[in-house]
Amino acid sequence: MNCFVTGASGFIGANLVHELAARGHQVKALLRPGSDLRGLAGAEFERVEGDVSDVATLKAAMKGCEWCFHVAASYHLWLRDYAPMYAANVEGTRNVLAAAGSSGCERIVYTSTVGCIGLPKEASGRLDPSDETTPVSEAQMSNHYKRSKWLAEQVALELGRNGLPIVIVNPSAPVGPRDVKPTPTGQVIVDFLNRQMPAYLNTGLNWVHVRDVAIGHILTAEKGRIGERYILGNAEGNWTMAEAFAVLEEITGVPAPKFRIPYFVALAAAHVNEMASAITGKPPKAPLAGVRMARYKMFFNPAKAIRELGLPQTPPKQALADAVEWFRAGGCLKAGGGAR
Fold it and tell me: Is this prediction's pTM over 0.90?
């Protein structure tokens, strides 16, 4: 297939380009000037210079493409000005999906987030992981990133109702190779390896190998039902931070933090951090948005994607091991970091 990929230099996007190229698909990758291309090293693709606001470039580049993957997003938990985030995530999504529709793409895969799915509910003393049917509303979008992605997902659903062949994927917490920046989830692993994680919050994530997420995008283009949403996660990946750190300790030999921070202490520290950031302009180490999200265990059930798409299920321990290997090789660790 001839494929168009936005966000190609990002974590998921770079892995998607590699997986598409490995399967013999032709890839046009939308890249902004000055993009960090380390994650794309070794992949075959045609570069298209521009961004999601450039409608003319989008339409011209998508001519002849059968598949469009809109992966690009502005992912920040703190900014001095959130207007550019909304412009990129909401209006940028409208621009890309509309251009893909007018260019005749047969499948348009929009990358959302599990943050747009309802939070898990506790039943009989246990947490029941959310799936695509779990109720959610805009009121649950507790920060600007989540709200901008929620609004973007509503754009995708609206355009789908108007006839565009859109399928939505909602990745959980991907980890693995090519996390160049790194992402906020990857930064947790880097901080752990550098022994800069003295304590942790009682939260949890659905950990999934980024390769499975990338392959999930391709399977969605091949098999996904138009108008549907698919959680791209791991059925065995619902781990608390304490569980994830215990696995990282086993993999690396770096001691896991033993102290659990009470939520109210972390929240107070985040308020102080953000007040300092308002003065300095430097992002806070612990943004309020991140702490507030950490109040909930983000556990999800990817059964629909496994059943309908054949979503791979690489063990989460392997995902963490591959992430550790990438960060060690990429020079993200300080002297003496990473133990073994």
Answer: yes
